[in-house]
Amino acid sequence: MIQSHEIVAALVDGQICERSQIVGSSPQQIAALEQSAGAALPLAYRHFLAAAGEDAPGFFTGTSFFRSQIGGLHAAANALLEENGETVRLSADAFVFAMHQGYVFHYFLLSEGDDPPIYMYDEGNGPPAKLCDTYSEYLRDSIGWHVAMVEENRVQEAAGLQGAAAEPRSSGDG
Fold first, then answer.
1. Closest by alpha carbon to 51, among 139, 137, 116?
2. CA–CA separation, 46 vs 104, rounded Å?
3. Is residue 163's pLDDT more than 70?
4. Of the four, 31, 49, 85, 98, which is 20 to 30 A from 110 by CA?
5. Closest C-alpha to 148, from 158, 156, 159
């Protein structure tokens, strides 16, 4: 199971953000989230919250993912399912922890243990389906994807700078 220190190290080592930028949720904030969920949250998810549940700039940009952004996602997810003619609805046991741009959401079931499977709905691709076997796998894969994007951006920026340096300058003599 993924641990808080592993999450922080992966975000920093992957150059997604700096250690000083990562803000974890307090025990009181986690307890309040559990109270609003009506149940204890899975341990793996609590590890994420404690490590980076408030902010980690560059991680899940454009996605409602951090603790302060996820209130109301369960209702929004069910509305999205209904809007798209899906016959399935999320149970009260479903905890939606991420929604991207209003058309994709990720969730787990509170009853499926301390490192539960992750399910995903992607608008236009049928009913929700299992995405990962555990939250730990989901988080490691997500961090890996973000690290790959950071590296790809770095390569593209370097290529752009090299290309700009190689372009002849106009003398203005027209």
1. 139
2. 22
3. no
4. 85
5. 156
Q: Can you tell me which residue has the tokens 């980690």?
A: 56
Encoded tokens for 83: 């809007």
Its pTM stands at 0.85
CA distance 140 to 39: 25
Q: Which residues, including other chains, have CB under 8 Å from residue 151's CB and lie 6 or more apart?
A: none
Structural contact between residues 14 and 30, judged by C-beta atoms closer than 8 angstroms: no
Beta carbons within 8 Å of 117's beta carbon, 6+ residues apart: 108, 109, 130, 131, 132, 133, 134
Give the domains, in start order, of the chain with CATH numbers: 4-145 (3.40.1580.10)
Please write the tens of the pLDDT for every residue from 27-59.
999 999 999 999 999 999 999 999 999 999 999
Closest CA to 37 of 103, 116, 102, 104: 116
